[in-house]
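Our consortium's second objective concerns turning raw sequence data into structural hypotheses that experimental partners can test. To show how far this objective has progressed, the report includes one record in full. It was chosen at random from the queue rather than selected for favorable results. The single chain below, 341 residues long, was entered without modification.
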Amino acid sequence: MISGFPRLVEAVQRNCHIADARHAREMTLCTYLLEMREFYRWEAGIPLGDPLARPEVGAWLNEREELWEGLAESEFTALPLGDAEFEPFAVAEINRLLLPRGLVYGAGIGRFGKPHFFLGRLARREADGELEVLVCACEYARDLTAIPAALQGGTVIVRREALRQWLWEKAEAWALKRTDGYLARALAAHGYADDPQAALERMTDAETESVILHERGEHAAGRRLGPAWEEMLSGCAKRRAEILIRAVRDNLADCLVTLPALVERQAWPQLWFWFANFDGMRRELFPALAALDPGKLGSGDTVRELAQRGAQHWERVARELLVADAAAIEALSLAPQRIAL
C-alpha cells in the first residue's frame, strides 16, 4: 500500500461525490434509483443478490442527496501522494506512483460530460500489443455509475468489480422473465441455473477478455480517425447526436476487433453475450447484424463477413461525420436509418 492511503481514498471519493452532485439527477428516475440501489450495496459491502432493507436504503439515499447539495458547486480536490499533490485528471502521473504499490487510479469524462473517478487494487498488469492492460479488483472509491472498462491513451483499464455488478444486473433482469435468446444461451453456457454465483465469476473472467477486445477496437478506431474524433465528441452539444457518434465508433471498434476475435477464438458464450447486449443506437444503425438469431450463428462465417463489411462501412461513416457540421449530425441522429448498413 502507500503512505497516506486513507487521505488518498478520501480525496478520490470526494471528487466522486462532486461529480455525482453535478450530474446524477440527469438520469431518468428509473435508472437513477437502480444505480443508487447498487451504489448503496457497494458502499455497505452487501453481496450481489442479497436482499436490501428498504428503510435503510431510503435513509441512505436522503443523506446522500443532502451531501450532494453541499458539494454541487465545489471544485475537484487535488490528490495527495507522498509530499506532492496531483490534479485529479493527471492519470498517467498518478498511476506511475500507484501501480508499483498495487493500486490503480482512473479518471476521465464519460457520456454527456460527466466526470468519473475510481481507485482500486491492481489485480493484473500486462502488455497487449501497443496497449497496456490494467485489471482492477476491489475498489476503494468510485462514483455512482461504475464503468466496467475504459481506454485512456495507450492504457486499457478494466474494473472487474464494476463488470461483475453489471453482469449480475443483466442476469437478475433475465431471471424475472427467463426468455429465450442470446442471453439465455450465454447464461446456460456458464451454468447459471445450477450455481449463479459460480457462473457469475466465470462470466466475469470471460467478459473481462471481451471488454479488453472492445477497448483494443476503440484504440484501432482511434488510430484510424485521429484526434479530430475526440474533439468532435467533446464539442457535441446534443445528447442524441453524442449517442449517434459513440454508436458509430462502437460499431467500428467491434467490427475491427471484437467480433472477428470472438469468432476466431470460437468463444460462443462471449459472442452470445455480445449479441444479447447489442442494443440502442448501435443496433438501430446495424440492422443486418441485429437480424441474426441465436440458432443461425453456425461457424461464425456470417458474423465474420458482416464484421468485414461493417469495418469498411463504419470507417466511411465516421469520416463523413468528421466533416459534417453540427446540424447535419443532429439530422442523422434523428433519422439514423439513413446511414444503416
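The partners drew two points from this record. The first helix runs from residue 5 to 23. Residues 5-162 form one domain. Both points have been shared with the crystallography group to help prioritize constructs.
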